[in-house]
Structures
1.
Amino acid sequence: MKRKISLTLNGKAVADEVEPRLLLIHYLREVASLTGPHIGCETSTCGACTVLLDGRAVKSCAMFTVQADGRQVLTIEGLAPNGKLDPLQEAFWNEHGLQCGFCTPGMILTARQLLNDNPSPTEEEIRKGLEGNLCRCTGYQHIINAVKAAAAKQGA
Amino acid sequence: MATITSKPETLVGKRIRRREDPRLITGTATYLDDLKLPGMHHACVVRSPHAAARIKNINVKPALELPGVVAVFTGADVKEVGPVPCAAGLPGLRVPHHHILAQDRVYLVGHPVAVVVATDRYIAADAADLVEVDYQELPAVADPEKALAPGAPAVHPQWPDNVAFTFHQEGGDTAKAFQDAEVVVKQRITSQRLIPTAMETRGVVADWKAGEKSMTLWSSTQVPHLLRTLLAGMLGMPENRLRVITPEVGGAFGSKLNVYAEEALMAFISMRIGKPVKWVESRRENFLCTIHGRGHVDYFELAAMRDGTILGMKLKLIQDLGAFLQLLTPAIPTLSVLMMPGLYKFKNISADIVGAFTNCTPTDAYRGAGRPEATHGIERMVDILAAELKMDPAQIRLKNFVDNDAFPFVTATGLAYDSGNYALPLNTALAEVDYASLRREQQQARQQGKLMGVGISAYGEICAIGPSPATPAGGWESATVKIEPSGKVTVLTGTSPHGQGEETTFAQITADELGVDIDDVLVIHGDTSIVQYGIGTFGSRNTAIGGTALYYALQELKTKIKKFGAVLLDVDEVTLVGGVCVDEKSGRSVSFNQVAAAAYRALKLPPNTEPGLVATHFWEPPNFTFPFGAHIVVTDVDRETGQVSVRRYVAVDDCGKIINPLIVAGQVHGGVAQGLGQALWEQAVYADNGQLLSGELTDYALPRAHMMPWIESSHTITPSPVNPLGVKGVGEAGTIGCSPAVVNSVVDALSPLGVRHIDMPLTPEKIWKLIQEGRA
């Protein structure tokens, strides 16, 4: 029943045997012990499970692990590999872009893709870009500030 | 020995980034579902698909036959476990026996009927689908007013009227106020059921160690100590053998201020299988089985003179309780009644609450807990009165505010408002929006047929909950400060923050008081085996009560530090400046670290002084605190679609002194987002048969980034005299102040069409229909 997969996870090649029905989020959390991506809904509405798949933000609760076969997956744990924070992580910290922190890994990775595509987004573009990620704590305002600050720092 | 006389920079009041954040932004924090214990099993709960039904038979055999399943338990197995507790006591309260698994009957959709335990999360879910439950469906009722009508289905057969309690409160002479009144306005106002929706659902891990006769239970909770006490009672085990740990908690907003069936159920399972067991709520379960908020139908009457002077208020409050009473369910509407006078000086109120059972999820404390409902009603009624009298809504408020020289002001509901300057935030907000020119602009817009509204709310709230006599389980808070031999400082707080940032604000307070580097301070919370008993985090109480307990523990330690410093310098008295003990006469000094080491080395003790530098303080607050503020919202309503756009949101809040402006701003923004959610989008919708139609995030409209306006937040500062920090609390203010300002704004926009009131949420469909009716 199990299927062989191999993928690049946070820059490292990994190979495993998984049940075809195993969701990517469960693979990351339970098998690979990467608990940075969180489960908030399992219906792809909240975005807490967001990871980058070949550089694109995807909701890892809405895809099977076998669909990641041969691809590159980046979780929040892989964003600061040598302990040097990504400008977005630094900005979320400086601007108080998080409270309980549960949505934060997904929010940061979605913002990462946003800034990769559009290095200096307007407030409206940031809001639009983050609409797939729910935050119940911040009202989003400090998150917007954080993305703006990270964009400014990157551009500098 | 160095001489240091310069006063160090203080941290209280500074915008300091949070000390919690490094673990959160790197994905290395440990939330409940991140826990993995050796031999850990997984539980999946089988839940009722019906709102009311008799359980005729349960067949667990097919589930047990699935490889990997180790046990299935039903109601018959857990009869010995005590009921899910309700801590709120009201005279004559009817408390249904709330078993942790259904016995012969289910009372709401989601009612736990059985629990499957397996070696793997997927197998547990598979097996739960194999449990066969034979139900005989019964009639259900999902609306509190329908539940109170004669002939309604009885939620609990022993109480056919569906009344859990009635409660009356009277202050002043309301009958006379209504006799004297020149004008009386009346309105039915609802505060719809909301689903708190913390981004992290609930979860529990229980680990019974038979050899030690002890249990460790991790739960995503706001109240680890209360949970331990009540859970020990349910399980019949000694409290000191139960350790409750809160890992990182992913938001709560009141929804985790409770004791839930699954907490006792996991403890029970772990004792039965002798292995650790984990249960994590699905989002669907979160919507069905974690408490809801609000659920009011309120009938308000306001008595006034023609000059706008308010004389008195009457309220008939129908509270939708749901099928069971959770920890504080019946107490929440009593908070609404306490709040009835708002910021106004009228002294006559009369309130009647009816608590109605429905076949729905229990309601309980959700951000604001009774106070948003009250504020919404009061602030809507003041606007309705202003419209009736053709007065300006700002002027009518300014006219009725409690006067600045009247504090402490005793209200008709028996509260003593601590301090206030109620006109200040309103006048500040009016200036900020340039109110006069907004009104001129509105006149022009109306001439062009545009629907533009300006809405005001002036809110007060009851925070720092609260003095022990006013709470079901004690309202004090505790703090222990330990200065280690190396001079590092450990703070143990009985509060249980989960996003509010007390690891930072408490470190700021500690660093300032002791004069140490903030990096030398560690704040610990949420482990009953490490932290002295505490009450927890709710009711905007952490800093005002927990911070004050910390403050007094620090004062005690400072005295002791100075005694040791004096011994080391061989003088009678020293001062403590910047963490250094100084003999003012000679200028000689000893460092903080030297004093800490000496206190533990104990070669020479000061008179009547024990070794060590540890202090614990339990602080009982003499009163609540009463923050206040004013929010002004400018809206534009699209005539063709009924869509409401918030053009400006101005919040001027007074939460007393501010420890960390960055954190306070975050609390305001988040609070306003939840208030806007209620005003515009969110609603728990039940079908008549008790099915929750808004049962997933796909059907429940939470605010998203593109839906939120920019919040212009500022503060006036009126210190509270209740505590030495001068703080009042800010966790719920945004939510409480928000919804009436939004609805007042939209009603103002639609007032040329003859609209006088709209119930929340202000969906485009609802607004569009009103516009169509207005045109006809």
2.
Amino acid sequence: MAGHSHFSPSNVEEHFEFTAEGRKRVIFAFLAGLVALVVGIYLLSRGDHEAAHAVAEHGAEHGEHLSGGAVAHHGDYDWTNRIWANLWLNGVFFTGISVIGMFFVSIQYLAKAGWSSVVKRVAEAFPPFLVVTGTVLILVFLFKGDVIFHWMHHGITDKGSEHYDKIIAGKSGYLNKWFFLGRMVTFFALWLVLWNWMRKKSLEEDLNGGNENFYSMVKIATGFIVVMGISSSMSAWDWVMSIDTHWFSTMFGWYMFSSWHVTGLATITLTVLLLKDKGYMQYVNFNHLHDLGKFMFAFSIFWTYVWFEQFLLIYYANFPEETIYFLERWEGHNKIYKATEIMNVVFNFFFPFLILMTRDAKRTAIFLKIACSFIIVGHYLDFYQMIMPGTLGPNGGFGLVEFGMVTVFASAFIYVVSTQLTKASLVAKNHPFLEEALHHDI
Amino acid sequence: MDSTERYLVGVFDDDEEVLHAVTEVKNSGVKIEEVYTPFPIHGLDVAIGHPRTRIPIAAFLFGCLGLTCIFSLINYTMVFDWPMIIGGKDFFALPDWIPVSFEGTVLFTAFGMVGTFLVSNSLWPGKQPRTFDLRSTDDRFIMAVNMANNKKTEAEIESILRASGAIEVNVKQF
């Protein structure tokens, strides 16, 4: 029941304090991740020679025809590739979480939704992290792009070269270094500019009240949805699908977007729950959490739908140039990606589906937290199996490098978001629908 | 009809008022059968104390039934009765069956829930509707009290209803 009648928009202002203790913990996690990463890199560099031999032998019999990516076609694997592939993986994954913060706010404004006005400041705090992931992705692309992308290999589009590949040369009008870089910079710039604009209006509303800023934000949100509709698909083709350059899927834009979206929703929900645990946001009641839970439940199923449709079409048509994508992950590379592929469906479909099915579960913090954790870890694995087989092939694995890198990114994300949360009231106190949200009851 | 059911019907003219009245009337020890309103009032079902609907359980069971039926049908036709090779796959090509099984589950669930809803609300064809007060579709809020469920006298209940804000109290028999 909505029993919070003693809150009124004039007295709900609340400020998050990023305490010295909290700061210390996040920095400690960052350093622990960094240590794990450095130790992992050191171990990799030592094991380099033995591994290289093993790969050379296996590659001849196994990897060669079950890889659509860069590795099997070119024997030039270097142990440092694993670092760049991991940077790329985490960059893409955290870009998704950050940009979905803006996307969530935008759909709420476009729909003129009332209930979400109590949680919108949390989602609004995610996009600043795009500065970090954007920098990482652009630098990795500029300096180590050929490690990630098969189409960037030297001489692959030169007719005279021994590496010449007719199919990739045919795609070079779209997949070439400068056009790709231009798209990447444009997307990040558009996302950040629109977010900044939205944020400015949001803070103005806190100061001045009135409905004017609300209508401006509806317009910005509409613009962002259009931008996101195009950029989410194109970034999926560019950043992830083009790793397996010969392969393509018309479902891929939706597939990656749905993965981003549900991860973003889970991160928003988890952040709200953790803030509630710390005593903030007491005006967020179980009706709001129920709505967030429904969002996660629905978009987990949406992800499954898209994932399965992509699989089914390829399975049914049975074209070798398409089935290679799944064969590579299911039985290629000495089956090192098979476990991830299974966990992908179990974590991202069965667990959220079963955990969040009942109404009571969606209204119970602990169930929501479990579901959020599975979704976030599961979609990290989803991106892992999208990116790693094509970039690392038989040299991939899950070790200290992966663990360290994701910890470093996650703690940096928490630091940036927490800092952003301190900059404004946790509740948009002059949001025209705030009163409605405070009495939300479903 | 061999037995008549006797109801006291309180008529209210404000949605906030009827919501408070429900709690007051209940606290005075009167059992409320149902409240009829022209539009949904948030929190009214909780205030009356209605148990949560069990229709999701029916939905789940109908879904299981649908899945079983459709799956058995495909399995019988495609594997046992007239095995067919489609796209070079096994007879038992599970991924191909998932969309149809899903649709069958949804179909059975939808029809099953509509049926359950109609039956549990006594809305089968030819059923004469019980209308306590026609104005509950316009601008009045109607609180029905079944006399059979209450030990208090009619006069006592009527005064409780009036004290909690009813503008009229009528007797209705079915």
